[in-house]
Amino acid sequence: xxxxxxxxxxxxxxxxxxxxxxxxxxxxxxxxxxxxxxxxxxxxxxxxxxxxxxxxxxxxxxxxxxxxxxxxxxxxxxxxxxxxxxxxxxxxxxxxxxxxxxxxxxxxxxxxxxxxxxxxxxxxxxxxxxxxxxxxxxxxxxxxxxxxxxxxxxxxxxxxxxxxxxxxxxxxxxxxxxxxxxxxxxxxxxxxxxxxxxxxxxxxxxxxxxxxxxxxxxxxxxxxxxxxxxxxxxxxxxxxx
Length: 241
Known about the structure:
Layout: H1 2-17, H2 29-53, H3 56-65, H4 72-79, E1 83-87, E2 92-94, E3 102-108, E4 111-116, E5 122-128, E6 133-134, H5 137-142, E7 149-152, E8 156-162, H6 163-172, H7 174-200, H8 203-213, H9 217-220, H10 223-230, H11 234-240
Antiparallel strand pairs: 1-8, 2-7, 3-6, 3-8, 4-5, 4-7
Helix pairs in contact: 1-2, 6-7
């Protein structure tokens, strides 16, 4: 873990240096920018390490508590509807053309939702790390066959909730209906922001924006997948960084 952290810090130092305040009182600006990076990653790694030490039930409980309050009995009832699954790196969870009746809450690892066009070019819609949700939501909500794929960038642990159980839980426990509605609204806002960024910003700005929001992605997701998320080639991203 220490080696991974140090290597990640050095790999990101050029990006962070763009945002560091250049103070004339210091001669070694590079050291200051590395320190800024280290502090940033320490804060993210603190939450990441805590999640590894927590049981799956606790991870979900902490996630919900950021938005709603449930009694212990209500949460236990909610949790009882989830099924745990373990997937290996590269394993497929959802394939185009399949029926989709579940969504996945990530406990550990990283998933990607993606589409491959007729020219075999990959477009990534979403990455999902710990405490994020993933599925083909068009297929899940509309009852149509899947139009995107979902697979594992790393070995991944998830909790699976069926659409039928989610709807029943929302009818029975109002705070859960509020939680899932809030989560959907948050997703709509994130999608709008991403579309606007595509319309207004170049690849370099979008790359820096992504890593400023989710710095751990750089240490988990290969660069060619980040390029696919940004809508550029791996070579284009390499020329930028």
